[in-house]
Design brief:
The chain has 502 residues and is an alpha+beta fold. It is built from 22 helices and eight strands. Strands 3-2-5-6 form a four-stranded mixed β-sheet, with helices on one face. The chain has a two-stranded antiparallel sheet with strand order 1-4. The chain has a two-stranded antiparallel ribbon with strand order 7-8. It is extended.
């Protein structure tokens, strides 16, 4: 068989997204806290765009764009479909090879159109003013920020308070460098001995010193050693708790209480009480030093009750407000008769108008989806999770008039503030189970019922999955046992044999 290069032709079909469509989809999918970064990147690339801030009038993206020069209504685009060539009311261009005629008239029309946009936005918005009190609150917040001490820093500070010599302190710091965020030593004594070029006995000796540091249990190599270190620290090395952990750790993990009771020669009640005390020990002693990861979310949609109905508004305060800057006028005038400069500025104006329109379309799409969610989940807004109804993205897309993928992008990473709390918008899209009456109930509501059932069970005789099926059937919910087991696992509830308390 001969090897070589050959050239062949093949005809294929492929879907290619236009750059403007890709930009629209990115704006639609980005949560409000990420949207500003996308807009700032566009601001750096497009000199005719500027963000309205401070005392200036804000662009109200919740309002409809004004009609164009021919009096046509603004175009509503489905962001899931490729948009047509969007007309920002700029005069039609001649072919690239032809000279540009009557450019002054074209320029004047652009200026007039820009002024119309400014007049429209100035009529619908009020200036934003920052009071002295707001500035003081903001400064107080910044002054209150402090850097937290890590577990490694906490342990190194304790090394300096010991009587270890300089070489031993270096070994202790090597050990601390191999302790993970939860307080466990990840490397073996032999590996550390080879790394430090010292004997394993010396590493073990220094490790015992590190294991006396705060928090109790730090430097352990497994859970068993971690719990034993905590009991030793409090003088409980001769207790039943210590014996159970030392000799019956495997049986303890499987909650084989009768087997443990026989092994230690104690009653089941005594072992059960010991297990309660063991449960108060900390299996992850370094957890208290983990940095607090606060997740900040800005709701995209607000739902408020007004009488018997609910009003839905979008969060326009977090959305960057843009307009076409006057800077392009200077660029136009400096371009003289240079067709390349004029074409460049014309394209940037088109791109800026398209970005403003896409931001407006984003808010409109999210607002329409939010209103449909509230309409379908009216009982949830009134009474809570137990009354959540099944709902699919296809159902909402059909009513809103967009593609199903548009709904998926629009709700991705977005939050809605309701009278029942703040929820991710995807929370409301759930499958359903059929009741004996023929109506549907969401699986989220069923999970909530299952959690309540297990919460109220007798711990000495925990309920089986089949018994839960019978209780739900009595309530009119038809559900299989394997579905109950699946939901129980998702709720983090152990099987009945592991929940039994003797």
């Amino acid at each position: 068989m001969a090897f070589g290069l050959q050239l062949s032709q093949r005809l294929t079909q492929s879907l290619v997204l236009a750059p403007q469509l890709q930009q629209s989809l990115a704006l639609l999918q980005a949560p409000s806290l990420e949207l500003k970064a996308l807009v700032e990147a566009e601001l750096q690339q497009n000199p005719v765009l500027e963000e309205v801030t401070g005392q200036e009038q804000e662009v109200d993206l919740s309002e409809k764009s004004p009609a164009n020069d021919e009096g046509e209504a603004p175009v509503d685009m489905d962001l899931a479909e490729p948009p047509d060539d969007v007309n920002f009311d700029t005069p039609s261009e001649k072919p690239s090879g032809d000279p540009v005629e009557d450019f002054q008239a074209e320029f004047e029309k652009l200026v007039q159109m820009d002024q119309e946009w400014r007049d429209h936005f100035s009529q619908t918005n009020a200036p934003i003013r920052s009071t002295t009190e707001d500035e003081e609150k903001r400064q107080f917040m910044f002054d209150s920020l402090t850097a937290e001490t890590s577990l490694a820093q906490h342990l190194v500070e304790q090394v300096r308070d010991t009587k270890l010599n300089e070489e031993e302190q270096g070994i202790a710091e090597l050990l601390i460098g191999n302790i993970d965020d939860y307080g466990y030593l990840n490397s073996t004594v032999e590996e550390l001995a080879a790394s430090a070029n010292v004997s394993a006995e010396k590493i073990s000796e220094i490790l015992k010193v590190v294991q006396t540091f705060d928090p109790a249990g730090v430097g352990a190599r497994d859970l068993r050693e971690c719990l034993l270190l905590q009991l030793e620290r409090t003088g409980q090395a001769e207790t039943l708790d210590y014996r159970i952990i030392r000799d019956y750790m495997d049986a303890l993990g499987k909650r084989r209480i009768p087997e443990i009771a026989r092994g230690v020669g104690q009653s089941v009640d005594d072992v059960q009480q010991a297990l309660v005390r063991i449960g108060r020990l900390d299996p992850r002693p370094g957890r208290a030093f983990l940095p607090a990861v606060d997740q900040y979310v800005a709701p995209e949609v607000f739902v408020q009750k007004a009488g018997e109905e609910f009003t839905v508004t979008t969060n326009d305060e977090q959305i960057p407000h843009l307009r076409i800057s006057n800077i392009y006028k200077d660029l136009m005038s400096s371009g003289e008769d240079n067709a390349e400069v004029k074409n460049y500025i014309r394209e940037k104006i088109r791109a800026g108008k398209f970005l403003i329109k896409s931001l407006h379309q984003r808010q409109q799409t999210i607002g329409n989806i939010g209103r449909e969610i509230v309409k379908r989940q009216h009982e949830f807004m009134e009474k809570g999770v137990a009354f959540l109804k099944p709902m699919t993205m296809a159902q909402v897309a059909e009513v809103v008039g967009v593609h199903e993928t548009t709904v998926s992008r629009a709700v991705s990473g977005k939050y809605i503030q309701t009278p029942q709390g703040v929820f991710e918008m995807k929370f409301f899209f759930t499958a359903g189970l059929q009741t004996s009456s023929g109506s549907d109930v969401s699986n989220t509501s069923v999970k909530d019922m299952i959690a309540e059932i297990f919460k109220g069970e007798n711990t000495s005789r925990p309920m089986s999955d089949q018994e839960v099926v019978k209780l739900l059937t009595d309530k009119g919910i038809n559900i299989a046992r394997r579905t109950v087991a699946k939901y129980r696992d998702e709720l983090g509830i152990l099987p009945s044999n592991l929940r039994k308390v003797y």
